[in-house]
Each structure stands twice: as C-alpha cells, then as structure tokens.
Write a sequence for this structure.
C-alpha cells in the first residue's frame, strides 16, 4: 500500500505555494496519472462491494481477469439481508441468489467477506469504520451512493457505478474528474433535543438538494470539531442529498481517539507514524473555495421533512409550505407534486401529523450513539405504531444488548431486528405500505423509496422514537424524561 505523502502545488508563475484543500491533498497523494482534460487516475485504497455487485464479477470472468488487490477489497452483505429470522427466513429467490453469489464470488476471488453469520456483518458504512478499515487520507469507493460517510474519518469516500467498480476490481485504480471545493462551516452549540441529523437536514433545507453537485464538501467549524466521529459520519452521509460527490471532516484528536479503539487500525510505532501523516490532513489557510456556507447551530430546532426530497425540511414547530409562495412556476409545480404525493395541505402544522409506522436504523442513524438517543426517549414508554429498530452492524447490536437498549425497545413494544439496510431502501422485504406514513431515521424520502406509495418523513433517532410513542409527529423537546409525567400528574 502506498504511503500518504503531503503535497502542495508550487506555482512557478507566481513563485508561491498554492493553498490546497484536504480533498486536493488526498487527490494529489493518490494520483497515478493525469489526462490532458485534467482527469486523474487514482489509486484506490479500499473497495467495498455488496450483494448488488455480482455483475462486476461476471464481467471479470468474461474477460478472464481476477481481482487485482483482493486484500484491499471487502464484501459486505447489507442491502438485502433479512432483519428478522436469519438466512432460513429468505423466501425471495432473487435475494437468496444475490447473497449466495456474494459468498461464492468472495471465496473465489479470496476477498474477505462480512456475510450473514459473520460477527462483523452489517452495513458497510457502519461496519468498515468501526473495524478500522477506513482510515484518514485513504480513497474508499463502492457502489453505494452514501460512500461519502467515510469522510467523517477524513477519508475520501465516493460512490461509483458498476462499470467503474469492475475497473477498480481489475486494476485497483479509477479515473476521476476533480470536483469543486465547497466549505460548510457550522459553529455554535447544539440546543437540547437537537442531533447531528437535525444539523444536516437544516443545512440541506437551507442550501437545497443541488447546491453541491459536482463538489467535495468539507465540514468545519466549532460545532463540527465538538462532534463525535459518529456524528460527523451522519453529516457526511447526507451531504450526498445536497448533491455532493464526496464529503470530509479533517481528522483530529477526536478521530485519533476513535481509531485507537478499532481493532484493525494501526498499532504501536505504526500508529505514531500514521498519526503524523493524518495530522497533515487539513485544508491550508487561504484556500480559495469555490463556494462557502456558514451556519450557527444555536437557533436550530429538531427538523422533519414534509415532502419527497431531503431539502423539504422544516422545524417540527413549522408548517407545510404553500406552493403559492414559490419563487418560480417550476418551483410551484414541484411543491404541488410533492404535496399531492404526501397528501398534505399547505399551512398544516407538522407537529401532530399522524403516522403509521417508525423505522430506526440505516447507515445514517444505525450506530450505537443513535440507538442510545432513541432508547432515552423510549425508556419506560409504549409505542402506538409498529416500530422496527435495525442496528447498523453486529457489533452495534452486541453493544446495544450489553447496555440493555434492546430490552428498552422490546419493553416499549418495538421490534429489535438484525443488522442491514432494511426499511431504508426496502430491498429485503421491510417496506412501508401504500399510503402509509413512516417516521424514519434513514436518508431519503423519495417517492416509493420505502415501498410503492410510501410516505416518508425523515428525522433524528430521538424524534423518531418520540413519534413512535405518540403515534404522530411531536417535538422531542416536549417529551419529559420517563417518570416526570407521573410526578407532574400527582403534583410531585
């Protein structure tokens, strides 16, 4: 594996060092060749494949090729795995075939597999970081569009197509057209009841779903610096929903402490050398960003989506927007189409909207910190609608059970599932019925995302748990700690 080398571009015309962003530094260190167009051939440090990638292995076989670096390729069973009943519960022949193919392809190509039965099985964006496979400065690719999640550790994560994945499998390289540099600065302190999910929904709601198209977004600011790695991964995960191709947070002491607990991260002298390299992974002062945004989190409230795009986000204290206020005819038509699909009237308060079911999980909010937020609300209460909790990995599931979180969920009447993408994408049979409303901690509320005719409202784990208990959308800040309702009712 190549060693990361800090690079700066010396501009001979101006006789000075040109400041570079974190994204550009990683790009320079991993560039093998450059075309006249500026497109770069990148060396790939990690390639994460899943059960949807069998056509890539078929293409290799047709060409008589093998995987160039099986030691840098890792397979995860996540999109189609059942969250209840285990492998024997699979009735869908296509799902069973996809999982069987992943097992066979991984064995044939000598790729490490985190499949069903593995103690490290889970969603790639949860399992890989928690094992220490994802490290600062690495280029990490895979077929899933939420690969930028790994930027929470200072890695350059990018989702790629199946043909590009075949190229990576065969050559361990990828052609890449450099992206624009966008900085999102978030300062302040999170108010009570507000989570990282609310932060990113607030950002997307403000800048829109296309603001970062063709860009690498770097999150910075005092709030980001105070966040845990898991919170940073939530930000980077959903930067995709603003159009970003990649998202990054510079590695720092928080990152190093997180990696110290990962089994496969560097140890001993290797760790000290790695830390010195990682410490250089920061954007230089004076960088000329293509676009910059700044936010103050102090006034942020818990967020919820009302429409069919993550940009359709408002505070839970807000109302459904009126299409008549749209800035253009196209904007008005978009709002009207979303309202028809979601069966909502302009001006309706978001708080109090009845829901039919709740999903807590996904690569956005399936980590242990997310489950703790949900459990804090569910503790001592009972849900009023069907609620599924799917941990992001087997390690998360074990940790949650060691802390008793599973018992809190079960006592509340929730379903405690096995790790996988589950109802986020609905490929494993976990779906929302036509016309049903789901309060979900996942990352997308597109039409039919959770099932044909499904209506999805995105929110944080605490907000989702509060909705499950109330049977409607509520402000988690109004939910008293367990027991306080009873004391208040008796004058205590």
């Amino acid at each position: 594996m190549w060693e990361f080398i800090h690079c700066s571009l010396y501009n001979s015309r101006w006789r000075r060092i040109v400041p570079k962003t974190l994204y550009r530094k990683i790009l320079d260190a991993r560039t093998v060749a450059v075309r006249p167009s500026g497109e770069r051939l990148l060396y790939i440090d990690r390639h994460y494949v899943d059960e949807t990638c069998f056509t890539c292995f078929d293409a290799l076989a047709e060409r008589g090729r093998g995987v160039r670096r099986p030691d840098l390729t890792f397979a995860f069973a996540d999109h189609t795995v059942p969250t209840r009943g285990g492998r024997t519960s699979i009735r869908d022949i296509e799902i069973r075939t996809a999982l069987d193919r992943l097992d066979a392809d991984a064995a044939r190509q000598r790729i490490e597999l985190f499949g069903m039965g593995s103690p490290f099985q889970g969603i790639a964006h949860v399992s890989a970081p928690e094992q220490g496979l994802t490290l600062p400065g690495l280029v990490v690719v895979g077929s899933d569009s939420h690969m930028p999640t790994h930027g929470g550790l200072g890695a350059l994560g990018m989702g790629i197509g199946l043909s590009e994945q075949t190229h990576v499998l065969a050559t361990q390289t990828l052609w890449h057209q450099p992206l624009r540099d966008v900085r999102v600065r978030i300062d302040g302190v999170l108010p009570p009841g507000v989570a990282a999910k609310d932060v990113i929904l607030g950002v997307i709601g403000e800048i829109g779903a296309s603001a970062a198209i063709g860009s690498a977004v770097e999150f910075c600011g005092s709030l980001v610096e105070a966040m845990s790695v898991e919170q940073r991964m939530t930000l980077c995960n959903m930067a995709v929903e603003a159009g970003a191709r990649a998202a990054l947070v510079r590695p720092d002491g928080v990152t190093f402490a997180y990696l110290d607990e990962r089994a496969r991260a560097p140890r001993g002298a290797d760790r000290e050398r790695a830390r010195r390299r990682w410490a250089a992974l920061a954007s230089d002062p004076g960088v000329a960003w293509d676009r910059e945004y700044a936010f103050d989190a102090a006034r942020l409230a818990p967020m919820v989506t009302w429409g069919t795009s993550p940009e359709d986000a408002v505070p839970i204290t807000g109302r459904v927007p009126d299409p008549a206020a749209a800035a253009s005819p196209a904007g008005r038509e978009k709002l009207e189409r979303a309202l028809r699909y979601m069966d909502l009237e302009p001006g309706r308060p978001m708080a109090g909207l009845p829901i039919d079911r709740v999903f807590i999980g996904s690569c956005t909010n399936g980590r242990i910190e997310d489950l703790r937020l949900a459990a804090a609300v569910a503790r001592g209460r009972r849900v009023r609608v069907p609620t599924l909790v799917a941990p992001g990995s087997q390690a998360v599931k074990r940790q949650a059970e060691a802390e008793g979180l599973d018992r809190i969920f079960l006592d509340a009447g929730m379903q405690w599932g096995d790790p996988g993408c589950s109802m986020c994408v609905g490929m494993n049979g976990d779906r929302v019925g036509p016309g049903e409303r789901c309060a979900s901690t996942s990352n997308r509320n597109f039409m039919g995302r959770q099932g044909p005719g499904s209506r999805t409202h995105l929110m944080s784990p605490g907000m989702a748990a509060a909705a499950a208990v109330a049977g409607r959308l509520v402000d988690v800040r109004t939910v008293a700690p367990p027991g306080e309702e009873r004391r208040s009712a008796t004058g205590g």
